[in-house]
Pseudouridylate synthase RPUSD2
Amino acid sequence: MSILSCEKRKADDTDINKDLKKAKLETKALKAKRPGFTDDRYNETSYYIENGLRKVYPYYFTFTTFTKGRWVGERILDVFAREFRAHPAAEYERCIRAGTLTVNYDRVDPDYRLKHNDLLANVVHRHEVPVTSQPITLVHIDEDIVVVNKPASIPVHPCGRYRHNTVVFILAKEYNLKNLRTIHRLDRLTSGLLLFGRSPKKARQMEHQIRNRQVQKEYVCRVDGEFPEDEIECQEPIEVVSYKIGVCKVSPKGKDCSTVFKSLGYNSKNNTSVVLCKPKTGRMHQIRVHLQYLGYPVVNDPLYNHPVFGPLRGKGGDTGGKSDEQLVRDLIAIHNAENWLGVDAADDDLLFSKPASEDKVGEDDCDTGTASRESSPRLESPAPGVTPSTIMTPTLASPSSAAEAPRGARERSPACGGTLAPEPLAEPARDDDDNDAKSDKVTVATQTGCTPAVAAVSAGPSDALAADPHCYECRVRYRDPRPRDLVMYLHAWKYKGPGWEYETELPQWANVDWEEPETS
């Protein structure tokens, strides 16, 4: 082989390596731009506190997805009208013609037929669901791990209607704790211990311990009825009925699992018991499903303590003879009826700028249903036993002809009426053999180089709350959730693994003699 040929091949190999390196760098750049992982994403909106709730100013956000195989060859309008039923077809047609719903970032006609690898992008005026304003407290923090006490109502990571109102976003925005690796999860309404890795290696190590059942977990809950004094182990297998809406049941076709329960006390005044739960496995909704099966559901479990499961509410696996399909349909209908509560509004001033504290809602309205603004799947037809009149839909007000046009995403700073400072940080356990002269008190400042940020507090939505005249939700009045809508009496109390152990303080409702305030 000639020297010239060798040099040519070497040059070709160098070019190939350069191309591969460039592709990897571009891939890394794309990953770095994922929602929630850059300062631009964190800073696209801000919080304000109102009526004990953490709220997010609406902001513009682009949802993207590639064309699925079953969509190829179909009209884009038909696909959105069928697959994304949050809005009517006429609204999607308006978005396509206005250029806010694009294909490969180009404007198309509503009759455009989708092709393989088409990138669909939809710019929306995003409204998030309010969560509790209770602070996320740090239980432990070091160079490898962050352990927090999560308040009920805050999801762990972005999902559905939640993005900035999630644990990972709040920790990044207010504690400068970014790029945390999720080790495990808690349900949105469950409070308690939540562990994050600060490095991929530590996260994998902790995940391995949990997966191999090396971690002992203890939860505390409050259930209906007088729970037996003797320890009970429930080993009924659990099956996921629907991943889409997240519901499970005891079934012979389910996966093996085991939970040990022990009564901590009974309150005869309200006929409830405080129960210690020790799950030996980690199935979806395991504790809640096993308690439902035993006939002692969590007092305020909005899913597994509901008559939709039949007269016995799922005790002993009895769902009133319903098939899985019928159960799912009924659950969706109940979710729609109880969570979407629209309130009439007379004009744009009422819709866009009037503080919620001035809203007058009748006592009867306050006592019916929940007040969540969580998005619900839509039914093609009402479920059996649910009439159309019981499925409440928001009432729209006509946007003013003088309404301001969309102005794009911009920083919105609420009027500052005080501060919401994170609670004092817990100190980690001291090592008696540590002779380091430096203080071993671990704080956000010592670990991140900055003090915790504070969330600005507003007396209510101000002029910073810009309205989009084409936004469906800008034209709807929602009732704020009540305190009891934001909590489920289930708390992750203690986690113990090889060489480590963490626990939180118990919530007030875990006291056996506690009674729910009438005003909640």
Remarks:
- The radius of gyration is 26 Å.
- DSSP finds eleven helices and 22 strands in the chain.
